[in-house]
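TEACHING EXERCISE
Course module: macromolecular assemblies
Task: Read the component lines below, then compare them to the predicted structure of the full complex.
Student: A.B.
Group: 4
Components provided:
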Amino acid sequence: MSSATENTILEFRDVCFSYDNSRVLIDQINLSVSNGEFIGLLGANGSGKSTILKLASGILKQARGIIYLWGKPVHSYRNRDRAKLLSYLPQVLDISIPFTVREVVSMGLYPYDIMPPLSTDEALEMVGLSVKADSVITNLSGGERRRVYIAMTLLQGAGLVLLDEPLANLDIRYQMELLRLLKELRAKRGITTIMALHDINIALQFDRLMVIKEGKIIGTGTSDEIVQQDLLKKAFDIDIEIKREETGGVYIKY
Amino acid sequence: MNWKIFLITVTAIIIITVALFAGPRLINPFVMNDTEKEILLSIRLPRVIVSILMGAALGASGAVLQGILRNPLADPYILGISSGASLTAAMGIISGITLFGIVTIPVFAFAGALCTGVFVGAMGWKRGGFWPDRLLLAGVGLGFLFSSILMLIMSISSTEGLRRAMLWIFGDLSLADWSVIPYGSLFIAAGLSISMLRAKSLNALILGDELSHSLGFSPRKERFILFLCVSLMTAASVSLGGMIGFIGLLIPHMARFVTGSDNRILIPVSAIGGGAILCIADLIGKSVLSPTELPAGIITAIIGAPYFLYLLRRKDVLSN
Amino acid sequence: MKAGVFILDFYGKKEQDSKGAGYINSMHGGRYPMKRSIIQVLVCFIFILLIADTASAKSPERIISLAPSITEILFAAGLGDKIVGVTTFCDHPEEAKQKPKIGGMSNPSLEEVVLLKPDIVIMTTDGNPKEFEQKLHSLGIRTYVFESLTIPELPQGLKKMGEALEEDERFNSLATKIDETLNAVRSQGSASGKKILFIVWPEPLIVAGRQTAVDDAIGLLGGINIGAIGQGRYPKYSIEEIFHRSPDIIFIGKGMVEEGDKNMRELSKGLLERIAHVSAVKKGKVFFVGDGLYRLGPRVVDGIQELAGYLK
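Instructor-supplied answer key:
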């Protein structure tokens, strides 16, 4: 799994992490992500999905092991250079200063001095918020707010996008819309996405899934390989029943 | 957007000019006798300049502080800096020390403000960075402590400096003097220009530390530098003329209402607005009960508090 | 002779009495260390010439008073006509109310003072900010600071002020008159050993403490001011303390407000009911007195005599 190729853009080698010597949150993780992959991190709350994303983005620093981003340790990049390669969208997006939607989205351009391929208006168009460009973000609904930040992330235009439960307060239409958008970006520009999630139905949409439990990867593979009764029972500690129909549909009963 | 900034600047210049020539006794700029010239140059001009400096410092530090604490209710005084400054200034006034001549009290106030800033910073520091909530709570706690010590000193003090100290706490510009302007403007200009250069990172900081990191900034470093700027500007402002309430809280909100929240515009507009508003407040303070002068801080609070409540009712200004 | 204070000052032989005296300052005069050199002697002569030229040629004709007590002193000394500005608190004598106002004591308006073109501004250490004096100097305006804080210091302070204003005779006779009354009162000692409380305001209870004219007056009359506790000149007093110390006589100041008498009686009702069992109240030894002792001016004499009248 850790066989790094030229195509590898992110690699964890024996990474461990804990806050101030308390409980170990990430326990000797190895993983590698190739250019253009569309990866889902599946796991229960507190399993360590967010921590993995924060380690990858350099927000947290691992206690042991090493994390490579395009072949160089992630902490060896200058902040601004790293921001051109990687963007991270956290799960909690609280804000109390009344920026307008346009003001927030255009912050995606901060790492650049030159004009990027995408404009603020195009980014807003992509998330369907053109009409709300001059609204104040604090007056938007949770889902609209999430889309504003997604537009900002798109505008930032990094090759690797890390999204922490981005579908959390989107309705089903925008969930599908966002997934479609990310896949389209991969097709057009080769953008790689890693997304933390806990919805098994959504997990079916990914090429590759990693199942995280108590800071360890307990399974990795295609959605067919991962969405299995035993593995998910273990991951979420619940009774779960999964039936596959011959038409390709999957029936999940919790 | 640009015409708005132009309009604000022009309005501010008009206000400042009015503050120079209006008042309980009008001065006609075209027909001045010697006494009026002297009043204009030695009394009104330094007073107006001090008002502009203090107002600008408070307006800008309010905007910056609301950003680094990610809290629209933050005010430069919430960090306890003003209480620290008042405490040392009152000690200076009451003890009657005149070590540095006419700038003794400003020097005392500045020292108190800076020490408090450092102390609040130390309390808000954890795991190699400032934590907004810790800074806020440390400032509030320290502010209460200093205010009570101040009350203690004032209630057991017998000297005549007491009334003077009271005036100073309410923000009194009547003794504004050329001698305090050079160092005051130095610190305020430094704080203001550094904050303006870092306006982008302040914008990012408002989105949260993680997003600020993702956008290519180091949130800890930025918050530290911006906190220094706020401390410096607030300390200089308090030392120039005491505590002026509500400008730091209110002006950034008014400015956001007019020009939006982007700090690249918000910081300079808050500075200009703060300076102009304090000029008006002082003009009102010396005119309404003339010849008795009311401290400008009382005027800003009397005008500011109702306006602030009115703003709170408006949907676009604050989130729920 | 007119420049006497300056010359003495210059050689560092300033008058011995530090209290009760004032000092004179202007943009020209500061204090100089006691060093002798030819240059200094020369400078001294130049100074004498300068001062003889400016100050002595023109005794102050336009005076601004920055305190009610000073206004009263100036009127009592017969200089009322020379006063061109007073504070908003200067309400005594009646003529003072007609004078142009320059603001309060702690916050006088610099502009108003400058516009009145005073020859001298008379300030007090009791209520005027030091910085204001410095500002006046920087604008080239002469000041005199009246430093007396207690009744015994008053006569000497008046004489000094007379020197500064070059009106020695008027002020000396005023001082002598006060001195004589004080001596007369002192020799009577009518309150010998009695415990006295002087209430300035009933709710909250504020009494006259140390270093006040009231305290001095009680002392001169031979009484004990039980309000003189702690640091404050006008401390906030606890009602329990009144019971503990059990005053023989309670004075209640009527204050300076119009119809102060009636007001104060109304305001004090609650307090007097609460301390009804204190011996002074039981025996009817509660007296409402005027405001003579609130200002360290010529009327302290009336104030002392009023107290003495109730003690007989």
